[in-house]
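Example (one chain per record):
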Amino acid sequence: MNKPFNSQDILIGLVAALIGVLSFIHIVGAGVFGEEFKGWLEKEAPVITLFFLAVTASYIILERKKALSKILKRQDELTENVNTCMSLIHSTNNDAIDVTAFEHDNAMMDYIINQMDAAQNKVEDVSLKPADQIFHTNGAYQGYARYKEIKAKLIDKPGFVYREVVHFSTEERYNHIKSLLKKQKANYHVVYYDKLGGNYPYLSFIIIDDNQVILVDHLFPKTRPSEVRLAIRNAHAVNLFQEYYDVIFEGGTKINSLKDFDSQPLKQIGASWTS
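Predicted structure:
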């Protein structure tokens, strides 16, 4: 497909034609145009030629400047488009789902310990199933002791919020909560459920810093060594579990201080292990 002539091509063609005409007149000589015209042409031809070359060069420079402006404008448009695409990609990444599956208890416990230890602002914990039923290996159960140590450290951290929902299924957990309340920290909030009705399973999970949820257990009061455990990083999933957590927390009985263990029904719960 032939490219059409533009104004620059036409101007260069006209200048070339003019120079050709001047050369032709010079070659033909005075016999056709006269000695006086020939003499004038020989004298002025360089000036005339330079004038039209200057006009041509100026025009080309202006056209190049316009073309450069168009290129720079297009470059700015492309840069803006790239920035828009990057914003869309970032927005899409906010909806991305990062899922970590744990093949065994040890791996899950190590993950929980590391994530809690790195937590910056808040942990929200639902602990309904006894630890000796959650963890099926000695290594994982030993890691649970480290989990309790980190929990105590986080509660001591200024400005850090720790909320917990528990079921006193073991004496060990009962005593552990009492030890945390002895710290008298205003940033530690705990509620409990005295009885869990029905045979349907209860979900235990941990939300860390509003950006991930760790599904620790979902079969209690049933148990299965091959139970699937996951850590999920996704804003929508975390929001879902956050709403679920808020309902569970509001429905529990709040323990305000260590003194509550000296009244019913907590006193009766504690007595059930010593009777």
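Caption: The longest strand covers residues 212-220.
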